[in-house]
Amino acid sequence: MADKKETVDRIRRFNRFYMACIRVMDRTYLDSEYSVTESRILYELYENGGCSAKYIAGKLNIDKSYLSRILKKFIEKGLIKRAVSKEDSRSFSIRLTDKGKKLIYELNERSDKQIGELLAELTNGECGEICSAMDIITSHLSRK
């Protein structure tokens, strides 16, 4: 059984390995003009059908000032639109535009292709083992 120090070391080693596999450290994500963080924000908007900046900042643990700069860039590029929230007139609901939806569809396709290439030589059994391991990790690290 691994102690906490060994577990920390192995998680950090795996993170370095996996980040290299999916090229997270590249200047841009999936050969797009966007960073991993920017792409993740777009994905949150896509997944939630729109949400508030406060929600995104909390969900992704992003500094609100940094998020604000990214959202401003997205507005300028026509990827998102803001509207007064129906639930709270003091805040804004942020949604993807058609252009933003098209971009996230493209990024999702590229991501699926990239991960598919990683799995190409694996058997269905090996893929199942990976899924089980990820489920266990998610379950254990989600407990608070």
Automatic annotation (TrEMBL):
Q: Does the keyword DNA-binding apply?
A: yes
Q: Which residues cross the membrane?
A: none
Keyword set includes DNA-binding = yes
Kindly state which keywords UniProt assigns to this record, in alphabetical order: DNA-binding, Transcription, Transcription regulation
Identify the stretch annotated as signal peptide in this record: none
Q: Name one GO molecular function term.
A: DNA binding
Q: Where is the HTH marR-type domain?
A: 4-142
Stored Pfam families: MarR
- Identification of the protein by name: MarR family transcriptional regulator
Question: Which organism's genome codes for this protein?
Answer: Candidatus Ornithomonoglobus merdipullorum
The organism's lineage is: Bacteria, Bacillati, Bacillota, Clostridia, Candidatus Ornithomonoglobus
